[in-house]
Amino acid sequence: MTTTFVTPKAAPAKEVEKDASMLKQKQMMAAHYERLTRAPETGEKVCATFVPGNLNELIMCFDLVNNLPEVNAIQSGLRRQSGAYVLEAEKIGHSEDVCTYVKSDIGMMSKGNLAPNGKKFPDPDVLLLSYTGCFTFMKWFELLREQYKCETIMLHTPYMGDGKITRNMIEYMVRQLKEEVIPKLERISGVKFDIDRLREYLKKSVKAEDDLVKVLQSAKAKPSPIDAYFGGIYYIGPIFGAFRGTDDAIEYYKFLREEVEARLAAGLGPVTPDGDMGKEKYRLVVEGPPNYTSFRQFWKMFYDEGAVVVASSYTKVGGVYDFDGFRHDPDKPLETLAEYCLGVYTNRSLPMRIQMLADYIDQYQADGLLINSIKSCNSFSAGQLLIMREVEKKTGKPAAFVESDLVDPRYFSAANIKNRLESYFQMIEQKRASSRAAA
User: Fold this and answer.
1) What are 261-265's contacts with CB under 8 Å, separation 24+?
2) Could you tell me the residue range of the domain that residue 362 belongs to?
3) Nearest to 74 by CA among 289, 318, 316
4) Taking all residues of the chain, what is their mean pLDDT, rounded to a whole number?
5) Could you tell me if residue 14 is inside a domain?
6) Does residue 282 sit in helix, strand or coil?
7) Cis? peptide before 122, omega within 30° of 0
8) Phi/psi-derived region of residue 247, left when phi > 0, alpha when psi is between -120 and 50, beta in every other case
9) Mean pLDDT throughout 203-227?
10) CB 35, CB 180: distance < 8 Å
11) What is the CA radius of gyration of the chain?
12) In-domain check, residue 416
């Protein structure tokens, strides 16, 4: 039996409202995909890597173009192409339980490997994996290595099981950078490593990181001028991808900060696809990735109820800058790359994640925690019921659980999610009423 995805024809949709910063980010991503797909013509070499532990500053030291497979899968999901890619991957033997980012990527390769601009992705010259808590990434790169027959570089990142970064961890990673990663990148690229060049990129990273933190922390205001989950996906795109360490990133995050500060001064809430959100009724912290195949519909379920996400864990997978104050340090260039990889959200233990979410609820005066459990993402979904119970205990705020998937449309049930969200908002109202009665 064959499953076929049919996209129903809908009435012409209202034009989607976007901040100027969202449009700017879209232009940046389009320019990057153009550069990436032109690499065979320009002679630039390509490095495929992942968002968590993304060493973009180091990659740029070797004049390599950054390609991020999970970002490509997200783009396919937003364009509603991923469903067919996932089916294609399952047809050639990949299990239903495998991460759908992986299956979307594998399926896309078997169907022409076309980028969002309609041009073919170039084959990578090197695969660089800075392993950060997700075992799937390692298996994914094994599949890509088999497909592309190119060199693979593994930077092993110790897991923060005890909740802290030790000197031994940093030294272990720096030794790998010096003895394995850098020499191989030199050989593959033909470019000699220049540590001063790395320092300059890291200085630029810090400027962009400072402005991103100001944007994220603006959500402490009431009303919040941003949505830190749905809107946050746009905000993290450049810095978690191919732009950290560049002048483009500095310019973008300065532009974004000024835009958000203007909304803050005017007392405005977030911009949604349907325009200004209107009155803020609920403030949430969200754990887990969003669903991308129905991204706008999912977001609408929140803003229609006046719910804004003031902090989220998913927007920390490429760096937890706003929580523990991490910034790249140009004075310790290799050590700071190690600390960055060690500190990303997916490399943190469950007790660390629990404390982080509880602190977000307190610091951002949130009404509670919502978990979006992703069927095919073990890196996030493992332990989420424990997280939910422990955060409730620590904060006294209600928590709820919805389920979907990353880029597989078969596992997004709009009616089910909407019902659970409505029940959760009723729980929040009941909690508020109980608090008023007790006072």
Assistant:
1) 261/214, 261/218, 263/225, 263/226, 264/218, 264/221, 264/225
2) 20-438
3) 289
4) 93
5) no
6) strand
7) no
8) alpha
9) 98
10) no
11) 21
12) yes
pLDDT in tens, 22-56: 899 999 999 999 999 999 999 999 999 999 889 99
Question: In 3-state terms, what secondary structure has residue 229?
Answer: coil
The pairing of strands 275-276 and 271-272 is antiparallel
Q: Taking residues 348-367, report their average pLDDT.
A: 97
Instruction: Please tell me whether residue 281 adopts helix, strand or coil conformation.
Output: coil
Q: Where are the alpha helices (DSSP H) in 149-286?
A: 167-176, 182-189, 195-217, 230-240, 247-265
Question: Of 47, 54, 61, 234, nearest to 150 (Cα)?
Answer: 47
CA end-to-end span of the chain: 61
pTM over 0.90: yes
Question: From CA 267, how far away is CA 54, in angstroms rounded?
Answer: 36
Query: Does 375 map to a domain?
Result: yes
Taking alpha carbons only, the member of 151, 155, 118 closest to residue 137 is 155
Give the percent of the chain with pLDDT over 70.
95
d(CA 439, CA 427): 18
The CA distance from 29 to 93, in Å, is: 32
**Structural domains counted in the chain:** 1
In contact, 79 and 26? CB cutoff 8 Å: no
Residue 195 lies in a domain: yes
What CA–CA distance (Å, rounded) separates 409 from 167? 44
Which pLDDT score, from 0 to 100, does residue 15 have?
64
pLDDT above 70 (res 77): yes
